[in-house]
Amino acid sequence: MPRTSALFALLSSAALFSAAGATPVSSQLAKRYQGVRLQRDNPPEDSLCPPLPFPEPIPVNGVSLSTAHWKDGDNCRRTLNVSVGIRTYSALALGECTSCETNGLGLNDAFWYNLVGNDTEIAYITGNWIFTD
What we know:
Elements: H1 2-20, H2 25-28, E1 32-40, E2 62-66, H3 67-70, E3 79-84, E4 87-97, E5 105-107, H4 109-116, E6 124-131
Parallel strand pairs: 1-5, 2-4
Antiparallel strand pairs: 1-6, 2-5, 3-4, 3-6
C-alpha cells in the first residue's frame, strides 16, 4: 500500500502543478461568442475591407464585426460561423460595426432578411458566432 500512496501523491502534485501553469483554453482554441446580439447593419464605405485588385462577388452572408473584433481591419475577410437557433451559417467579415456591442455582429441586408424576413419590428436577434479560420 505505501507504493500506491506515493503514486497517488505524485499524481496529485502533478495535477496541481499543471493546473497552476495551465494555458487558458481560450488561447488554445478559437473563442466562441454565445448569446450575443446580432443586428442589421450596413457599414459606411470607410469601414469596409479595402478592395481587392480583382472583382469579388458580394457574399450573401456578410457581417460587420464590432470595433473590438475588427481590430483596425486585421480581421477583414475572415470567415466565421453564425448560429441562430439550431441552424449554422457561414459568413464573411466585410466591415466594422460601430454600433454593435463588444461581441455583437452586424448582418448585411441579405443575411438579415434570410434570418428575419421582412419583419421591421425586430431590432435584433440573439445568436452565437466563432471565427473558423
